[in-house]
Queue: 2 jobs
Job 1
Amino acid sequence: MRLPRLTLIDLVIFAAVIAGVAYVGYRVETVLIYKWDWSVIPNYLFRWDEGQGSYVPNLLIKGLATTIRIAIWTMLVASIIGIILGVARTSNRLFPRLVSWAYVEFIRNIPPVPFLFLFYFFIASQIMPLLGIDEAINGASPGTLAVAEFLFGPANLMTNFAAGVISLSMMSAAYIAEIIRAGIQAVPKGQREAGQSIGLSRLALMRYVVLPQAIARVVPPLAGQFITLIKDSSLVALISIQELSFMAMEIAISEQRFFEVWIVTGAMYFVVCYACALMFGQLERRIGVHMR
Amino acid sequence: MTLRDAEAALPPPDGGRRIQWWNSKPFDIVQFVLLSGLLAWLVWRGAETMDYRWQWHRLPQYFYEVIDGELLWGPLIYGLMVTIEIAAWGMLLAMIIGLVTAVLRLSGSFAGRIVATVYLEIIRNTPLLVQVSIFYFVLQPILGINNPIWTGILCLAFFEGTFASEIIRAGINSVPKGQWEAGTSIGLSRAKTYIYIILPQAIPLMLPPMTGILVNLIKHSAILSFIAVFELTTEARNLIGDTFMSFEVWFVVGPMYLVLTISLSTLVAWMERRIRRRR
């Protein structure tokens, strides 16, 4: 590896960064007189359980698990709604186009926070009782319950979890619909015409000609959407769903250690999202090789 | 037989059939209106089953009040003003941050690229809510900012600055290389090439996505309700806490945001069409 050539500009930039860091350090040490105490953090990641005689995940790790669960389930639900909306967006008929357009524009133009508040307030009281999750949990055998707990988190919070997933899916579906639409429209017109000319039905045309080509184009932005989803799932903390950000808020207040808890939480999100980004980057390169 | 004759001899693409009424555009629009009505009815039914008491008549006083012949703006209007203020300052700062980052990335300086990459990756891979928390709970006391609104503006500006830098970089890179070479060949300096040749071509391309950032700023400013910035969402939440009119308040605040964002989005679409036509 060749060493980069250092110029005057580089030195100026480095000096500016060091000066910035030094100023922050000076403020923390002498003006705020803040006493760092990182010792509370490890206990919230893993705690020693006397009964089991081993380390078990504590609030922060549990919160991270909930965040990932929310992201995965939301991705699934949102993809289904998003594919339907995206295909509707490219329909020949005006009606599906209009419905899908109205939905996408509505969601994309309304801020997520008010939407979550309103929607959560509404579905928590209206739709959740219809789903009958509580009855299902009460009637479930221990074996099924264990599987359900692995998939959806603690039983007593499952209704809450489902409400969060539904709210987030409604939002995410609009963005996925746009990705799908772009993917379908990127398939050259000649492909459709070729399909029509050999007498394929509309459904068969979608199934065998358009979608397989669209999916290859859609995978990279969908992967990006998944990372966005991990980040956006922090918003459901505002509606009291116990994922990572919610746990961080609770711990920061109860321990009065705002600096340490928020920095660690940020780092946890960063590690997960960055790992996903690297992984998806690899995946994309492989798909890119296949496409050629 | 010419091609045109052959086309005339063939039946029209729809097989010569007349469009049936259930396939016609007006019918589709009617269907759409019916569906919207159905949704509105479902919401209304839902509220009924919750024994929700609608109190629309209490709402106008939170927009404005006339006391002793004097017009006083209510909390919702104040909230809207704060939201717009945040978006305006955020836009300015985001553009500055974006420009600096884009210059650092394009400069070819080793340190500049490192700084820009670290900044971009950190902002891109952490949730905005966590960024807001870190700005509020960690950076605000450290930097000694007294007013949380400036913490919020700063945080949003750093968040949107990543998008701005990407837009600026893409805009500058989209100017063909030949333009650079042309500028150099007539003896212009690097700075002059930028000012007279590159930027006049790049800026029109940047305008629509930059307006998109403004839309995002308005949307994301709602997150600042988490840190006691008195913008529209905070005012709405406080109002609900005081009056329990959840539906009325959200049904009014939602459209207030929608009017702001949709008018800007329409502007973006119009600009994009114009640019595409000019090319």
Note: Chain B has a mean pLDDT of 86.
Job 2
Amino acid sequence: MALRRDDAALSQDRDTITKAVDDGPVKTRRRGLRGAFVGPGGLRMALLAAAAVALAFAVTAMLILVAGKNPLLAYWALFTGAFGSLDRIAFALNKCTPYILTGVGVALCFRAKVINVGGEGQIAVGGLATSWVALNLSSLPSALLIAAALVAGAVAGAAWAACAAAIRLKRGVHEVLCTLLLNFVGTLLVSEALNGPMGELGAGFPQSPMFVDAAWLPRLLPGTDLHMGIIIAVIAVLAGHVLLWRTPFGFRLRLLGSSNSAAAYAGASFEHGFLGVMLIAGGLAGVAGGVEVLGVHYRLIEGFSQGFGFNAVAIALLAAATPAAVLPAGLFFGFLDAGALAMQREVGIPSSLVFVIQGLTMVFVLCAMGIGMKQQRV
Amino acid sequence: MSTLLKMHGICKSYGSVQANRDIDLTVPQGRIVGLLGENGSGKSTLMKVLFGMVRPDGGSITFKGNLLAQHTPREAIAAGIGMIHQHFMLVEAMTVTENVMLGWERVGHWLRPNDTAEMIRTASKTYGLDLDPHAMIGELPFGQRQRVEIMKLILRGADLLILDEPTSNLSPPEVAGLLGVMRRLREEGHSVIFISHKLGEVLEICDEVVVLRDGQAIGRCAVEGATRADLARMMVGREIGTSAHRAEREAGTETLVVSRLSRFDAAGVERLREVSFSLRAGEILAVAGVDGNGQADLVEVIAGLKAATRGSITLGGKDITGLRVGGRLALGLAYIPVDRASTSLVPDMTIEDNIALRDFDRAPLCHGYTLDKAAFRELAISRIAQFDIRAIGPDAPVRTLSGGNQQKIVVAREIGRGPRVLLAYQPTWGLDPGATRFVIDQILALRDAGGAILYISSELEEVLMLGDRIGVMYNGRLSSLVSREDVNVTRIGLMMAGADEGSQLRSGAAS
Amino acid sequence: MDSTAFVELLAASVRIATPLLFASLGGILSERAGTFAVGLEGMMLAGAFGGAVTSFVFASPALGLAVSALSGAGLGAVVAVATARFRADQMVTGLAVNIVAVGITSFLLRGMFNGQAPVIQLPTLASLPVPYLAQLPVIGQVLFHQPALTYAALILTLPMYFFLMKTREGLTLRAVGENPAAAFAAGADPIRVRMAAIIAGGALAGLGGAVLSLQEVGTFTDGMTNGRGYLALAAIIVGRWMPLGTMLGCLLFGATTALELRIQGWGLPVSSYVIQMMPYLIALAVLAGMGRGARLPAAIGTAFTRS
């Protein structure tokens, strides 16, 4: 019985973790995010996510104590701020929409072992394109106008992601750096546009003129602010789910995310998968940007894209890169955000506390993933 | 001549496998002792025991008169034993000097690279290592990196050096250089344990040889007066098992033709040298050989996972040399790789998905842009039944299955699609006898049904049992093929150890 | 643009580059030991906060500096434990820590002062002209007419170089970043080394933040680092993970920022936003130009486990 495998694995491929077993006392392993999204048991993953959230809340509670306030009061204000009335729920759902949209894209990227943190830039550029259409094609009938505007947003977001993807594919620069740096450029592009051709003259703040009524996203619930963006978000979740589990493309993504050698063995090309998933994520983020300008602000406004990108990463992590789970995770973050504003108004605790909760949740989930809590279906 | 090392009665088992059975090994001072044996003979385990990486179940080790027991590698190094592993512990982005200084207390806090460089130059001259202290490891060829590892051992005062298959990745001139270094080591009073399966080198450099087989020390003799035939017989000799039931067949049409396939790997080492053969329908071409002689490269090139530098591959008359994996699959090529853990299977995906792994983007599993999950399910169920895979159900993740059942999935997938050509590389690795039997039966069944099979294994029994024609890979070259009636075990052993006329070693012709 | 304005621009570049320089020197330690220093942004922010608030409450810039280093190191400890001990993904952990930093600093700014952010107005640290040398033409103003912390940052480049390249500890640190298995075989503890490097790097990044709040601006505002941590990261890559090259990278980015602040007065037909984009675009361009030739520490991003 052969006890030793072929040691032709002297290759320099960093992603090869299958070195011969008996090769000395130590072994470096590149598992990273890939190692987390493996294994069955959605329930265990959900429990893990819940535990991370609970721990984050607990640590933050200590912080609140340091500031001399009552954590229970704070959290109650948080809760009622989010769920307290129909109006508040509508507000929160609006907040969830860009999170969910972008989160699905980032989750799909994670599935293929791609770290895309460019949400902010892609949203910004998407919103920019949407605004351009809304301002310049304003004579179109409402449904057509909105559709065209959102499509423009998707295309712009996808193109922005493609820039980062191209640099990664052609020049080998890690996609985190590419997408990250392009975030800044994207948001500055919006400022530049608002300072120039698309700005509203005489406004005290960099913003575009308000869009015509026809461009506004219709309300879902009359009397509230809830716009139909949430429907688009849910559709995106479903589409992401189907894509991942029911199409050959999704199968390839899962292969790429599990093992490079298996992917190669099965004939899945890294380049195609990488580019494809970046385009999809960029497109989704672009739509998110479009939804924000058409449904919340009714104009292009400086800084509208702030914070969404990184939160989308957090959401995708919390959802263990499963599109279906992005929905609850995105809802969680959105309601958290909404509640935080109320918490600040009523109890005087700065809403920035929510960043702490969100960031700590991410850290705890990452730690659990790092030590190999393999819990879920690939 | 004093004894430097005495290992007595070493026993070590891994579960039911006895890796070392009551092995004795004595190494005198200033001598080179060869440790000869195939894969699985127990050489690696014995050295790991010596070096402190593994605790033996029984036996004792005396080194320089002192008992060495329950020791760690660091203690072994401190005692004067040094080991060169297959994977070097070198930092590519640093120079030779820096690598030597790493972890060496003698250098102190403020590095004085020039002093160390001087030491390196001196030792280099003494031992014929020919190393430039300021060279970057990343730019050194394999042979030179090996010398850096040897240098580290020498400078840290190793009296006994263990070299584990040191020539597997060396070109012929590099091999000659290494043998020269070993001579100098001997002259300077060091002892060397030279582990190898290559008879020619062993006979050339060693003073004595110990042959291991199946965990036992079969024999020990001085090199002087030993013949290659003797050694080969000791190394390989065994009962040939009763062959499996096989139908007599006329081989059919030529299905796979490989012509002058050559490949250089990323480091510039020639892995495949002008390999040529043709495979006919309804026959098994079984290739023996010790791991690391190019087998992996051969199957991966034919399977489409690696590119050949020269040569061509034709499948059913079509040139597939430049074709990607998907194309080759479509033409009826199947491949069972050795690595179940992360190549042929995705352990965390379900059985269903793994069975679909290679055909998921073609009908009937895929229609247009959607996967037909019902078809996935149907296929999985039918394969599970057909190949008797023991599992809870088609959506159990593969990693919950035993090794044998996992391999059944791979076999079910590759053979189940009725391929024209099957490449099987160590398909029974890590399997218990029952599962091994199963795999072999399946392959024979495919052969009977008209498939053409290239079967590569380091298990000689399997090769002898299965092959209609048999060949040996050594050093990237495929020997001439012998039909099973004409096979001679000793001759195969010689070929595996590179001592046959066809594959000459450098200086020192066949003796 | 006349020569005095040009010299003034150069001097400003050096001054503005100072926070970047501290942060990137800290980042070099972390990256060289094999951990992506994505968390520099958060560590800088924590340091800016710690330094400003301490200086404000205790009226002592020196104490402020000390606390800023501690704050940065504290966040560094979070990254260290998560990535080296728990093997969390390095990139995303860094991002998470940046998010936490924004939240915590913003929160504590109000939370520690009864819900109302105090108006912090600190005198910015003054320039310390070096006698004689400050009189030299051009160089005098650019290099020798700077605040104390700028001198500190510029000088720090040298000992950092020596540490990395000329000491045994530096050799071990670099080995851990290139091939932790080899370092382990040579007797080092890669996990400990990495953690130490990240925490030390965090302390330096914290100092960089203090430079921002104490020397540059004189106050703390939410999220005031505004991407400087990422620029520091880009500077490390541009400088090929060597202190001297990184310093040049920081000066380059400092120059673009200095330029942006002054461009209005020159009436150039380039929008200020485009100028603001320059650092990021340049960083991208350099990274793309270096491409795969960028010699990262080979084991960066990988977790180390004994087996």
Note: Chain B has a mean pLDDT of 84.
